[in-house]
Every structure is written in structure tokens, then in C-alpha cells.
Amino acid sequence: MGRVADKIAIITGGASGLGLASARRLAEEGASVVIADINKEQGEAAAGEIPGVCFEQHDVTREENWIRLVDKVVAEYGRLDILLNSAGIVRLASIEDTTEETWRQINAVGTDGTFFGCKHALRVMKLNGSGSIINMCSTASIQGGPMIFAYAASKSAIRGMTKSVAVLSVQSGYGVRCNSVHPGNMRTPMLEGVRDIVRESDPQAAQAMDGIWVGEPEDVANMVLFLASDESSAVNGAAMVIDNTTTITEGAVPR
């Protein structure tokens, strides 16, 4: 207990999946956590179940929303110590089938949302000379995948964004760390949604999916906790992979 005691955190996409698991883990270790999510019903329900967590409805795709959220948190809590950019969406489509609408939707939430979050967290964190920005990436930014073209592109942009923020902070003496987390397949509503689509379109592929390794949200939440805590004070600009060797194994990693 107490690994992030008295720290103030914002977690986008915190109403479900990896964001929710991370919110729970940070709160367990003493942080005050603001779940920021566009889904009001889920967000309020999640916040109501976890001591030390509150909810703010938030659309990550608009910069003015970020300015308002960050300034509100600083006004109420006095500072911002941790930002986890976890909001993201995925749509199954190759480059040949990706529409302009799909491309813009995925990148508005994932790429633009992370850009605005990093920009305005850095704005207030550097005033205190400390802070940890954690960007939820994916092994899709390492391996790619034919049917997640726009998602992989977005996550790859976030990976580069993370390193640029980290280097800027070090060279400017801001004291803010920025790292990315790259989960493989994790047992989340997003993964289940993908599996449902695959089951309908390709039962054989779905059966193969059922036989591969899948991690738990808590696996990712524990990494987020480490990066949020002072234990990782020398970890900056890193891409932390959580995939049980999936990205370095020939063939599939069995469950």
C-alpha cells in the first residue's frame, strides 16, 4: 500500500478495460484518481465502486475539453502528478477497406486525444518539476496487423509522440517522465468485441484465437502503477511491452 500515496491522477478511457483496471490499482495504492470517459453511465458506476475515484465526463478529441479538465483538476487538487492516456477504439479493416471516416474516428480518439493529453499535462506538470505521463500503446505498434491498419498507425504515432515528449522534458529540465505501455491481447471488452466480429465472419480464425495467450487487465495495471510511482524515476521514453513473448515468438503463444 502507498506506492502512489497522495498523488493525483487522470485516466482517460477509465470507465472500462485497461483504464478501469489501472484506476482501481492506483487508488488501491493511495492515489486520488479522476476517471475521464465519454461514457457517463459506465464512468459514474465505476467511480462509485472504487474509494478514492471520481468521474468526469470527457471527450478526448477536442483540445478545449482537455484544457478545461486539466485546469479543473489542478484547481481542485492543487496539482496533477499522473496522466494515463488510455482512451482508444479499434475497427477491423485493412488499408484497402479503411474508409476516411474510420481513419479519422480512430485517430481522433487515439492519436489526437493522446496529443492533447500530453500537451496539457506537460503544461501543468512542468510547473511542479515532476510528473508521469503514461500512454497506452499496443503491440500493434511493434508488429502491425493487416486488419487493424488505422489502429496500428495510431498506436505507432503514440509511440513516437511518447519518446519526443520524454526527450523534450529531459533537455528542458521539466522533470516530467513520459513512457508508453504496449499490451498484447488482454481480456477486455475491446478484445471480446473483436472476437465477436471474427466469430461471425471467420469461425476458423475465431477458434484459433481461442487457443492463444491472453493476459489480464491487472497485468497492465501493475505496469501502469510502476510507471506512475517514484520507483520508475529513471524510466523515461521507454516502451514497456506486456505480451508474454508474443512479439518475439515465431507463431502463436499458446494459452
SSE map:
Blueprint: E1 8-12, H1 17-28, E2 32-37, H2 40-49, E3 53-57, H3 63-77, E4 82-85, H4 100-128, E5 131-136, H5 140-143, H6 149-172, E6 176-183, H7 189-201, H8 203-210, H9 217-228, E7 239-242
Parallel strand pairs: 1-2, 1-4, 2-3, 4-5, 5-6, 6-7
Helix pairs in contact: 1-9, 3-4, 4-6, 7-8
Polypeptide structure, described:
The protein is α/β, with parallel strands linked by helices and 255 residues long. The chain has one domain (8-242): NAD(P)-binding Rossmann-like Domain (Rossmann fold), CATH 3.40.50.720. The chain contains 9 helices and 7 strands; from the N terminus they run E-H-E-H-E-H-E-H-E-H-H-E-H-H-H-E. The chain has a 7-stranded parallel beta sheet, sandwiched between helices. Helix 3 (63-77) packs parallel to helix 4 (100-128), helix 4 (100-128) runs parallel beside helix 6 (149-172) and helix 7 runs antiparallel to helix 8. The chain is globular and about 55 Å long.
